[in-house]
Amino acid sequence: MLRVGLTGGIATGKSTVGQMFVELGCHLLDSDSLTHQLLEPGQTVHDAVVKEFGNRILAPDGTIDRRILGEIVFKTDPQARSKLNSLVHPAVIQRQRDWLKEMETEDPGGIAIVDAALMIEVGTYKNYDKVVVVTCNPDIQKQRLMARSGLKEDDIDARIRAQMPMSEKVKYADFVIDNSGDSAETRRQVEEVHSQLRGLSDLAS
Questions:
Q1: Count of domains observed in the chain
Q2: What single-letter DSSP state applies at residue 61?
Q3: What does pTM read for this prediction?
Q4: Which of 6, 15, 73, 194 has the smallest number of CB atoms closer than 10 Å to its CB?
Q5: 171: DSSP letter
Q6: For residues 2 and 21, what is the distance between their CA atoms, to the nearest angstrom?
Q7: What are the angstrom distances between the C-alpha of 107 and each of 114, 197, 201?
Q8: Burial 128-140 (b: 16+ CB within 10 A, else e)
Q9: Strand order in 27-30's β-sheet?
Q10: What pLDDT, in 10s, does the model give residues 112-151?
Q11: Angle 80-106/44-53 helices, nearest 10 degrees?
C-alpha cells in the first residue's frame, strides 16, 4: 500500500483535493474531522483541553466553542497553540497510524491518503511514502477563509501567519497542486498526480 500525506495552508483547498482523490479510488482520512471527534464531550482529549483552558472555552451545551478557543490560541496567548497541539496531536497521530494499518489489511495494493494541516510542522510527513502539498494564491486563500469562516481580516491574517509559509511547505512536497484556478484545472492536476501515485503503488505491490 502506498502511504500519501496531503497537506497545505489553511483554506488552500485540501479537502476539495482529497475528495477528488477519493473519486479516483483512493482511501482518505481527514485529520480535521478526526480532531473534531476527539474534542467531543466524553473524549479524553476534550477533558484535557477543558482542564488546560478552563470552562471559558465551553458552549452552553458542553461542547468546546472552537471560535473562542481559536481566539485564545491564535491571538491572546502565544504559548496556547503549542499547549493545545501537545494535547491533541498525540491522539490524532495514533489514530492515523491505526487507520493506515487497517487500510493496509483491507487494500494492500491501494493508495491511502492522510489529510493533515500540520504534518510538516510536527514531522509526521516522514511517515509517508509521498507528500502532496496544496497551494493557492494568497489573496484567494484569504477570500476563501473569509467566506467560509466569517472571521475578520485581522483574525484571518493571524491564522495564516501562525502556519508555516507556503514557500517553505512546498520544499517538502513530492507533488504540488495549485488550487488557485477553477475546479476543472484542479481536477486535471489531481488526475495527473494520481496517475503517478498509481504507478508507484503498482511498482510497490
A1: 1
A2: T
A3: 0.92
A4: 15
A5: G
A6: 13
A7: 15, 15, 11
A8: bbbbbbbbbeeee
A9: 27-30, 111-115, 2-8, 130-135, 175-178
A10: 999 999 999 999 999 999 999 999 999 999 888 888 887 7
A11: 170
